[in-house]
Write a structure and sequence with these properties.
Length: about 625
């Protein structure tokens, strides 16, 4: 028999009486536990100021410094193309990245720094049952993690963050902080980030984003009505989620207008048969405040009445402006010509309506709609829990991007890939050329041991990972657009890239122990099994070249050469010593901006030495690199 743990019992009693003094801290073994802040509690019981640690306004939690270090730590990884899982690999501008989003965000820093117009993410909510990323897994020893039950046999990267865990809030914050910090770097100066979250962590997420983006760049907390009716099992049923909106720079950001919906259109009419079409009238008075004298005057109505502004108010326009609008038949005095004047606003001249922070489910969809939408795509099977409705994300895409630009939309918690669906839908609607980049962890779906109700359905259908589901969602949605659009083309393809270890071999040795055998072993520093395409994409990442640029293979003097966007980059990964000076001269005639060779490909050391000289003569602006 084990006696009760008095400390835990007392802590629970204190939590009930004084919940504001319960926090999270590390114990002597370095483990995060719930503790009671006795120092702050002393102040609660004292009428005098109690000495303590220096205070400052900030959000803090055990593990914050580690999460900051994690964001800044370099990785030695790459992205490998998976052409057999891609759609329209050679022509598409869209990317799907399979792997840890923290790694993916780090790998994208060079290529997409300041280039992403919109980020939308729907991270795991901290509900006590949802899974979150455990980043300790990426740096700790696998065997130790398995022995200590922190990692399963298939290398699971997600853990259930239950409320009984002393790290309940800290784990979630340590997961989200480095990812948002890295994501900010990718945003364009006029870029925006929308983040879905529930009541459980919205207060902490707001503080994290205030710290990363700056309070001045907070734009809105949008409330989305996600349900259609209350849950009878709950005392008060949650009907909403939050969508936090931040700008990279609030002074540079802009949002599009929303189209006028059918309900709003009913308020427009044309009682005076104006040739400019239907209109709605708006009030022409304003508060006096600091109004100039030019806004205090009497107006003569068509019926002959003299009408001063209402008591305590003024006219919203100077008299000269008003008379000009009256001459243009933009002032309405009512059918009898005796009413207070109002300004006519024509629907044909309207840019639309400004969004507000309440998004009802009639306008942007709800949970039931999104589930049904997914079932329709997957032949009646619900293969993902709690997907977001396409209409919700499509509104975000419409507001934050421009149809006339090739704006990049990034979602690094792809899940059911609603964001890709929404980007294609908006492009189909307005003829835009937006591009998406989605990132999803290749978390395995396990029968009977998973955390998602829909996983068992997906498992029976043969899906092995969440990323496989994401990819198939994009494929199925793309087929709908291809079938319905006719001549109007929408890019429904995507390149699949997988986060993997570097293509180059890792060399760890004591300098004093270097032998000729070791040097000969490293003559070819490319790992076995890595293809020329693998090497090409690592070079693209290293050089910061757009990963969606068109690539074609050309044979020059019997050797395969990859040409990226015609002359953005040329690459020859011949490893059999076939690269001679004649080949280099022929390649230099194409005048690529960059060229890369494989060390093992040169016919001799003299050819390798002469490569730069040849390019200086034939194509002096070309940057030369060897791997």
């Amino acid at each position: 028999m084990q006696t009760p743990e008095s400390v835990k019992i007392n802590l629970e009693k204190l939590k009930t009486l004084f919940p504001n003094f319960v926090t999270e801290a590390k114990d002597p073994n370095g483990q995060l536990v719930q503790v009671f802040d006795f120092e702050l509690f002393r102040q609660e019981l004292s009428e005098q100021l109690v000495d303590g640690q220096q205070e400052r306004y900030q959000i803090n939690w055990p593990g914050k410094r580690e999460s900051l270090l994690l964001a800044n730590s370099p990785i030695f990884k790459t992205m490998r193309p998976l052409k057999d899982r891609s759609i329209n690999f050679d022509s598409t501008k869209n990317l799907f990245i399979e792997g840890d989003n923290l790694d993916a965000l780090k790998l994208l820093q060079e290529t997409y720094l300041g280039k992403v117009k919109l980020i939308y993410i729907d991270p795991p909510y901290n509900t006590g049952s949802d899974l979150i990323y455990d980043d300790d897994f990426s740096i700790a020893n696998d065997d130790y993690l398995k022995q200590s039950s922190q990692k399963d046999d298939i290398g699971g990267r997600l853990i259930a963050n239950t409320e009984s865990n002393g790290r309940f809030h800290s784990d979630w914050l340590s997961m989200i902080y480095p990812r948002i910090k890295l994501a900010k770097n990718l945003l364009a100066n006029d870029g925006l980030i929308f983040i879905s979250i529930d009541d459980g962590e919205v207060h902490n997420l707001r503080k994290v984003c205030d710290e990363i983006f700056g309070e001045q760049n907070f734009i809105a907390n949008i409330v989305w009505q996600k349900k259609t009716s209350p849950d009878a099992r709950m005392a008060i049923s949650a009907a909403h989620d939050h969508i936090l909106l931040y700008a990279k720079n609030a002074e540079l950001m802009s949002l599009s207008y929303l189209p006028i919906d059918e309900e709003r259109r009913k308020s427009f009419s044309n009682p005076d048969s104006d040739p400019r079409g239907d209109w709605a009238s708006v009030d022409l008075t304003g508060q006096t405040g600091r109004a100039p004298k030019s806004q205090f005057y009497s107006i003569k109505t068509p019926s002959g009445l003299e009408m001063p502004p209402p008591e305590g108010r003024c006219w919203a326009l100077a008299e000269s402006t008003f008379l000009e609008l009256q001459r243009d038949n933009r002032i309405w005095f009512g059918a009898n010509g005796s009413n207070r004047p109002r300004l006519k606003k024509f629907i044909s001249e309207s840019e639309g309506i400004r969004p507000w922070t309440w998004w009802d489910n009639k306008s942007v969809g709800h949970n039931q709609e999104s589930s049904q939408e997914l079932k329709n795509l997957f032949d009646g099977n619900l293969v993902f829990d709690n997907p977001k409705p396409t209409r919700l994300i499509q509104r975000i895409v419409h507001l934050a991007t421009n149809a006339k630009s090739e704006d990049i939309v990034l979602d690094f918690f792809a899940g059911s890939a609603t964001t890709a669906h929404a980007v294609m839908a908006q492009n189909a609607l307005d003829g835009g050329n937006r591009k998406f980049i989605l990132v999803q962890l290749d978390q395995e779906i396990q029968k009977g041991t998973n955390e998602f109700k829909a996983d068992s359905v997906a498992y029976k259908l043969g899906y092995k990972t969440i990323s496989c589901l994401s990819i198939d969602r994009i494929v199925r949605a793309g087929k709908l657009f291809n079938a319905n659009l006719g001549d109007h083309s929408v890019d429904t393809g995507f390149r699949v890239l997988k986060v993997d270890s570097s293509n180059l071999t890792d060399v760890y040795y004591n300098p004093d122990a270097v032998s000729q055998d070791l040097l000969s072993d490293q003559a070819d520093n490319v790992k076995a099994g890595r293809t020329p395409e693998d090497l090409l994409f690592q070079v693209l990442l290293d050089w910061g070249v757009d990963l969606s640029l068109p690539i074609h293979e050309e044979i020059i003097q019997g050797r395969a050469v990859y040409l990226v966007d015609q002359n953005a980059l040329a690459a020859c990964f011949d490893s059999n010593g076939g690269v001679d000076e004649e080949f280099v001269k022929e390649l230099a005639k194409k005048q690529p901006l960059r060229v890369v060779f494989r060390d093992a490909g040169f016919k001799s050391d003299s050819v390798k030495i002469n490569v730069e000289q040849i390019f200086k003569l034939v194509s002096p602006s070309t940057e030369v690199k060897c791997i």
